[in-house]
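An instance noted here:
***
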Amino acid sequence: MSVDTFTLFVVLPDDSVCTLRNLASGVNIEEVKARLELIAGLPSHIFILIYPDGEKLQDHQKLLMRENIKDGYVLRVHVIEHWETLYNSVFRNNIESVYHNGGVHLKGNMVINAEESGKVENAVYDRGCVALFMSSFLGLLRMCNMLITVGVDINGTTQFGRTALHAAASKDNLITLKYLIDHGAKIYITDLLGKSPLDVAQSCASHMCEKNLKIMQLNLRGNNKIVKNPKGNI
């Protein structure tokens, strides 16, 4: 028996629309958000999905044909309130605002007790990684440079295990991808679905990034063989 599939239109905060095709009836919201993370460049934990009437959808909820969804249905992305300022600042390429609202400045400009320091550090780390993921997707090279310069983890991941390199690869931002790799981004990190940046580039038809990642992987393998056999011994 064939499984019903449907197409979902998702309206982003800037009113652009992402189209998700061939979704299987019964797919849950978490799976939809996982796909949107790469298609829209939004880390899944900074937004929720809502119905056109404003009703919020929980991550565990399933979309079932003829029950709560139909082919061609529309949902909206709603950025969670405490992420709105950072989202807007990155989207508008406002480097100064991202520096301050990203929490980066908290490292040196806040006096906090030991009990709160861990929470603050985690918040700073998370916001920095979110900003770098979004910037890499959008191809904002100066923004990426600022974030890396102030110490944002270039290999930090989203809740689905995706790095800034996954984001750049999904959008075929070759210049950004090369910049990230030159500054320490690891090309072999896989997400929770087992997908590397190369896998993402292939699935998103990001041909320039795919070609370059393949070459980089071949070069790394070649270098590893030389290190293991410096004299050419077999």
The first strand starts at residue 5 and ends at 11. The two ends are 54 Å apart (CA to CA).
